[in-house]
Amino acid sequence: MARVDVIMPQMGESIAEGTLSKWLKKVGDEVKRDEPIFEISTDKVDAEIPAPTAGVLAEIIVTEGQTVPVQALVARIETEKGAALTAAAPATAPAAASAPVAAATNAPVASTAASVPAASVPAAASNGNGASFEDRVRTKSSPLVRKMAAEHGVDIAALHGSGVAGRVTKRDFLAHLESGATAAPAGARPSMHAPGGVADAHAPMPEPRTGDRVEAMSKMRALISEHMVVSRRTSAHVTSFMEIDFTRVAKIRAAKRREFEAATGEKLSFMPFIIKATVDAIKQYPIMNSSVAGTNVIYRGNVNIGIAVALEWGLIVPVIKNADDLSITGITRSLNDLANRARSKKLSPEEVQDGTFTITNPGVFGSLMGTPIINQPQVAILGIGTIEKRPKVITGADGEDTIAIRTCAYFSISFDHRVIDGAVADQFLATLKRNVETFPEAGVL
Fold this sequence. Notes:
The protein folds into three domains: 2-93, CATH 2.40.50.100; 118-207, no CATH class; 235-443, Chloramphenicol Acetyltransferase (2-Layer Sandwich), CATH 3.30.559. It is built from eight helices and 20 strands. Strands 10, 13, 16, 17, 18, 19 and 20 form a seven-stranded mixed beta sheet that branches. Strands 7-2-4-5-9 form a five-stranded antiparallel beta sheet. The N and C termini lie far apart (58 Å). It has 445 residues and is an alpha+beta fold.
């Protein structure tokens, strides 16, 4: 018998840590090689991590909710194969995501204050600037704790952490607040180390009351929270709306659906038509496909469309790369593949990066319209309301008005007014409207 080490994998070059969000196996369970045994959350994606070998899960070292550096020891598997005593999990594992409005439904996770055996944490070492591994981890903390520290003007490095290598957890920080030691010196200025470099208002911290339930945010929810706040502080948000008639597209879809599915093996929804119409409009208004870098504007060479996917545990935006080079068939295949793998936690970190324009579809839940927040560092995001039949006034060739049943939806475009004027945003939306309402039937297959 031999024991094989299971380690925290590195989910991308820039990722230095991961939070073990859920164990899929318990001690004593038999596991097969490459069978998922636990889930992790990182700054980029959620992922299911497979077992490096077959055997029995003999020991769990990192509990649910703990954040540990890559290469940290997570568990051990007992196996009869003694050829290798240590087997690292794959350097890159599949990952998953979440969507526009779905809230996390995970049960409360174990506190990150639980201790971790010393063997699971790399030994303290200098970073070349005199800072030990422990100091770097403590200072780094999590996005949520860093945000809380910035709001209260607290230096994380000065706190004693109970997490891995002295990492300051949310529980540590709340205990520090309750001790009364967080008051900033009189006349102190608000911290400028908040996300986006903007001073935070010192809003009062709500206190739980009798009967309340306190549940720590998941790693993904904390990251979404930080990302949304940063975006609101970074971009000058403005939103415009326009109603778009889908009657023509609905007829084309109904007429071509069977032929399309027989030829491609893919389901044909309204979304590929919307993506194609959006890409064609972006080609006419390239400012919609840009990013702001100080006083410079970066016009992206490719159109990479991010599609928000709603999952039970959060929000993720997989990206259709080079959508400007794809037909309806190509867009449909990419869209369906990304959405399916997002729901099964099989996305790689690269597949949720480098988006240049985002589309979110709250209409799938019945929402008429919305004002989505821009996905930084992009400058615009398209919101799609529910597509439904409505009575509309139609002017005939003879000039007479009649009431007809039309398939319509409200579209919204939230844009960064720093670089996009209202007229340009409205012209873009009008072009998108025209592209949908005049969609060529020959462009489907």
